[in-house]
Write the structure tokens for this entry.
Amino acid sequence: MLRQGTRSALAQWLPRRQCRHSSSLWNAPSTSAQPTKLPVRDTPPTKENTKDMDELLEEMELLADTMKQKERTEQVKWPNKGKQTTRKIPNERLSTVIPVNGDRVASIEKQAFLQQEGEGSTNYDEFEDTGLEKVPILPGSFIVTRRNDIMTLGVSLGIVFEDSREKLAMFTPTGEVWKPFETDVTFVLPSFVPPSLIERCGLLLTPADEAQLNARAEVAKRTRTMIQDLERRASAIRMRHVYDAVKSPRPHEMAEVTVAEVARMVTKNPRYQDIFAVQLHMMNDPLHFIAKEPFLATQAFDVRSQWEVELIQTVLRWTRHGDPRLQAFADKAKPIIARTAQRLKDTALEPPAVLPAATEVEWNEDDKTIITFLKQALRPVRRNQLDPFDTACTSILRMLQVSSTALGESDLLHLLVNLGVFAPWQDVSVIQRQVPEPEYDSRSPWRLKKEKIAEKSLTGYKPAPGEPLGPEDFYATDPLETVRHDFGDMPVFVIDDASAKELDDGISIEWIPDNSGACWIHAHIANPTATLPPTHILAVDALKQGSSLYFKHHSIPLFPSSLMYNPDLGWSLGTRNGKPTRTMTFSAKINRFGDIVDHKVRAGLINNVRVISYEAVNKILDFDPVARGIVTRPFGGPLAKNPPIFEIPALPTEEVKALKDLYKVTRLRRKWWMDHHLVSVWPPAASTKVGDWPAGSMTAIPIRYREFQGFPEFKDYTVTIGEGASDGMVAEVMKMAGIVGSKFALDHGLPMIRRSLDEIRLLNQEDEEVIRKLRSSSGQMNKWDLTPYVAAFPTGQYTLEPKAHGQCGARDGEGYARVTSPLRRALDLVSHWQLQSALLNKSPAKATTFSPDWLDNFKVSFALAELTGKKLDQSHSSYWTSMFVKKWMGGELRGDGFSTWNRDALFEGIVSDVGGRRPSKLHKVHGVDVPALGLSMDMETAGDYLKIGQKVNLRLQEVLLKSKSTIGAVHVP
């Protein structure tokens, strides 16, 4: 088990175990540390708290105006109190309100629920792979859903597959069947309706016969009774003091709280009615609480900092009362906006620069408050809550005469650029609160703090062997020194991008001299746990961060560079001068059919490290990804005119042979995979390379006006539509290593976090043969070709069980663990510490570094951190590809050899999402993939809804730059 000291060091930041089965939320036992008790009833009103309540009511009224401005439906509509009927439901025959005509128009609420999210993309967050185990939503469960500020209560009828997505069929008390996504669900009460009754309801939009009609009438009756019960409790509960009890004591810091914790504050023994009431109040108070996604799994809220709450309240109050400070700011800002816009237009094709301001701009304190408010509003928001920034932002934009018909985040970003707050190349993703520095700065407090700790650990007191370790102490000696296997002069190839810094994996091959055709494939992985104990403060920080973050011109690594590249430690492979490099080596014995027939995990020493780029290995293997159409340059560009020349290191003949043998064996392994699995999805990927910008210009300074001009030069735009030789070879070895790590843990009784992934679910099993003919020689298909055959694409999950992972070739019962990136991913670090304990105990592990309970908590925390990193990466990538297209369409693209935009040019798109209508658009909006450009777009069409997989012609229309940048197109029939 985890030592006491380690438990205290690591447990201090892990959230309490989140119950992923919502049914047990109200049965959760009280924690040992009792939360603050709040009165169930309010104290008698005083002059002071009456004033606070008046202000709160004003703020809530102002928030409600947002929905009117965006033509939204009422935020919370109790189904038995809505405006759809004036009759009393108990005296009305329920079957008369259940639709039986298949052509009946959906209710206003349903249309609003399903409509597009303003100027957001059709690619909703609902489709993201969270890594969390799914909350079971069984048929007959009472559920609550939220989307587009619409809350709906109903009963789950079961799972349906529609438009290649998995959805829920939900029966509402008004008699409609809605089809929300699982991520729309915020509350689940299992076994609300007996299975026998729910089965008789069916899954169709309208009942097929009288038996289904009668069953639905009974379910509607029970649902309305439940809603009345929940409404009474929601009206009675009092939560005025909750924010003060749970906010961070530091005014500028956010906090986090779970629904269960708050429920125990307001009532001693919370039941499901209390849980629902607390959740409802917190969802309806976005000024103070932000639902933490994915909410159904977390059941938690981020608590806004006191500073941000006061900022929002201030600007909302000014907006509400028409405060002259807003008009004064607008009058001052308008000439600045016009002047900046003209200068940026005139210098668009010049190099980027920050100039001394020709005219000094003095922002007063009120101006700074408004600008800070606008800057804070630039963050991704999912519409299961109101956005408290919306109303004031819209008012300010209109005062500044922004001409867009549907004001949104892209207009706000454009405004801040023209105010001189942001550079024209400002990337919104790097200024989110999860990113400690928006660009590389050797003097940033975040970086200096890590380097100082590293220096102290390297040069300070070194504890003797067996002495307890402090939070800044490394191991006195390598714990695995006596059991390390020396691989001698075996060549180990560290293959990565030429610009990669954290080199944490190498590969090698060892033939077995028995003429059986079998060989050992070794994955030699960096071994920071030879130095770093889990109690070290840098280790704890790494577990919090989750993984390294990568941006165009800098990265946020898990560990400081003084440790990563220290020649004595040799964490990054190839950096340990004159000494063998320590590794954790995962070895798979591959037979002549490509199957894994034996495995080993050893602490290793490697001596002959060859660092080589992907491009150089492709040259050695005579594989040209451009000639084979795997990499394309649809816009041309400098590298299309003059292809890059990659240096090929002079390798001995036997090492070249070893590389080619590795490739041959990994292709054999891939053939084995194709014999046992159907298809691997390869999403098209567009990528850009962009030149430098002035240092410091990506860091926004709201209190000072800065004069920018020009724009960075684009160096390249590529679309990758498949796997190359070198990257495919490395990927296969890493997949084998993950299987070996899981199997070794099973052999030694080690609890281990694994990742599972089901096979793709097809609409018709008969289509398997069609797909086998369409897939590539490596078993891959582009997503747009595969989508028409798919009922639902699976999502990965972290689990302690050795479940199957279809894409990696892991069978059920052996599992797949992440073990190959300990320098970049905290989960791999945890796996290494766990395996280390087994390597020190040859018999089945008597003591492990981490207990199953700790691992169960960590897999949730890591999955959430990983999800945050994925969203930042998607935001960053889409910003730069969208910026490229925007500059190309506007004739402002800096870069040699790129083509010129023809506004009449048509592109072929493939419908990927049926979408819906947006509040500001008269036309329907569909999600489309454009293979030639490697992009997803939002396409307007005046015709009928199109089918998934349907090919269409489209013309580019607009680009919206924001936290989730989108490219708009119009359908050309």
About this structure: The longest strand covers residues 150-162. The radius of gyration is 29 Å. DSSP finds 25 helices and 33 strands in the chain.
